[in-house]
Amino acid sequence: MTDELTRKYARMRKAIHLERPDRMPYSGDWGNIEYRKEVYHLGEPELVSELGQVVVSNDGRRRYTLDGGVWAVGDHEQYRDYDDVLRVDPERFEVEQVGPAMLDEMARLYADKARTCFPVPWHYGTLVTRAVLEFGWEPFLMAAAVDPVRLGAILDRFGAASLSVARGWAQTEGIELIVIHDDIAGTRGILMRPEWYRTYVFPWYRRIFDAIHAQGRKVLYISDGNTFQVLDDLVATGADGLYIETSSMDPETFMQRAGRDKLYMLKTDSRNIDLGTVEDIRVEMAKLRELHAQYPGIIMYRGGGNPRPGNAEAFARLYRELLVYEDEQIGQGKGQT
After folding, report:
1. How far apart are CA 248 and CA 335, in angstroms?
2. Between the CA of residue 222 and those of 174, 258, 275, what are the distances in Å?
3. How far apart are CA 290 and CA 318, in angstroms?
4. DSSP state, 307?
5. pTM of the entire structure?
6. How many other CB atoms are found less than 10 A from the CB of residue 116?
7. How many Cα atoms within 13 Å fall on the side-chain side of residue 266?
8. Residues 173 and 119: beta-carbon distance below 8 Å
9. What is the pLDDT of residue 93?
10. How far is the C-alpha of 214 from the C-alpha of 217, rounded, in Å?
11. With contact defined as beta carbons under 8 Å apart, do 299 and 264 qualify?
């Protein structure tokens, strides 16, 4: 293992154990690995697109952007409206067994990523997101409104599938942190009433997180958007870490509510990098420095997909100036791990 790779591992392990490392861990210190992303996410882009251009996949189900990855709108031929969703047989969605085939593939993914950074398994389509990927937004939302119990049986199938994947990752040697992703909110708030999540979604989160904890691993939960209305519920699921999309929620308010005993993955404000000034970026980074002194378990990555000229360079410079502490620690005689 190279010195640089050793530092990446040490940096991430300190953050996971809520100790402030030599710098705020940044994307590249860790790397996500996905099992069967063609099932639980959206696979790889088929076509190369220009910045700002949206390209449709050959099957018509997916949209690709150079800066935003892959996203989908469901299968319009199979799921035209909510009736098509509610009539589906949940058994058509596979629940894998945790066995040699799964574990061997997970071990391979881990070993490949471990050569360059700290590997973090990422399970994308857990419950709500899986339903959106399969059915599309409108059929899914209408089905939830018309017959939540019937849709709940389908979500149970997705939950069982996600539980198997989580168990597989938790049994994979070397894994320390697992990310469970499920988008339950938009910029303005949660997508459904809190009671709906408490009935059909959060119990599955608890089961999945408990299975991860049973193998001595930690779990970080990610949802885009503003989840503040159900933050207490998310904390109660037992997640060791939570995600903050700063264009939707104030990080300080969120952390004060969730507590100091959490790992936080933070996406910087996309508005600052894409539309703001260098001073806007400086103010945000200075605030992150203050928060990191109080909440040592923070890892972060840069938001925004189309930076205003000069802002990406300013972001990199201000990160080095404000969120790299190595020189300070050496000056204080603390040394570097």
Report:
1. 37
2. 22, 14, 25
3. 14
4. P
5. 0.91
6. 13
7. 29
8. no
9. 96
10. 7
11. yes
Could you tell me the CA-to-CA distances from 337 to 10, 17, 22, 177, 331 in Å, in that order? 7, 15, 8, 20, 14
Rounded CA separation 246/223 (Å):
12
For position 334, what pLDDT does the model report?
A: 38
The per-residue pLDDT for 330 is 35
Q: Cα separation of 324 and 234, whole Å?
A: 31
**Which DSSP letter does residue 157 get?**
H
**Which single residue is written with the structure tokens 């503040």?**
228
Q: Token pair of 146, please?
A: 């018309």
Q: How many helices (H) and strands (E) does the chain have?
A: 15, 12
For the chain, list residues with pLDDT below 50: 329-337
Residue 326 has a pLDDT of 74
185: DSSP letter: E
DSSP, collapsed to helix, strand or coil, labels residue 325 as: coil
The pLDDT, as a whole number, for residue 337 is 31
C-alpha span between 42 and 306 (Å, rounded): 22
Delineate the domains of the chain, giving CATH numbers in brackets: 3-331 (3.20.20.210)
Distance CA 306, CA 57 (A): 22
